[in-house]
Structure to design on (169 residues):
């Protein structure tokens, strides 16, 4: 009975962290990928070496987390350039994305849009319509970045379960 309770507690804690992590991949206020990594680390610490998760498996989780964070930072800038914005617009989207983090949740989308629009107008001397298209591109890039974060979060959770049940055993 005690083993059942311990196993249940381990899975409740691990599952809760994985769910919070997955939600955090979409909500900017939560560091989703970090929660997924913490779920894997916590599982290993609670279960011990018999957990089935290999230490190099943590390296893969960390790599996926790093890729996601890099893509999140540059996605607004890439969207701006994809929609025909200048380097100024891309830089404005980047700056706006960082400033927008302080004004969650709306700052996530509005920061890159305002940054790209403002930098295109002020520094690239673009017309309002061209600047607006650049701003919309940054918003589209940010939304694609959120989708990529979610996909990587699902991949991290999938890797965690693969490592526990197939690879590490």
């Amino acid at each position: 009975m005690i083993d059942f309770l311990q196993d249940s507690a381990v899975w409740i804690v691990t599952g809760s962290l994985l769910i919070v992590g997955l939600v955090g991949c979409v909500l900017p206020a939560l560091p989703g990928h970090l929660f997924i990594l913490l779920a894997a680390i916590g599982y290993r610490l609670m279960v011990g070496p018999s957990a089935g998760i290999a230490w190099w498996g943590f390296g893969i989780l960390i790599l996926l987390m790093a890729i996601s964070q890099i893509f999140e930072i540059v996605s607004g800038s890439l969207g701006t350039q994809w929609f025909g914005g200048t380097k100024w617009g891309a830089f404005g989207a980047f700056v706006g994305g960082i400033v927008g983090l302080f004004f969650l949740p709306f700052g996530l989308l509005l920061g890159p849009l305002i940054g790209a629009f403002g930098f295109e107008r002020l520094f690239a001397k673009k017309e309002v319509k061209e600047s607006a298209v650049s701003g919309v591109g940054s918003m589209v890039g940010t939304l694609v970045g959120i989708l990529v974060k979610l996909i990587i979060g699902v991949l991290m959770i999938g890797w965690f379960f693969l490592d526990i049940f197939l690879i590490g055993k």
Q: What stands out?
A: The chain has a mean pLDDT of 88. DSSP finds six helices and no strands in the chain. Residues 128-167 form the longest helix (40 residues).
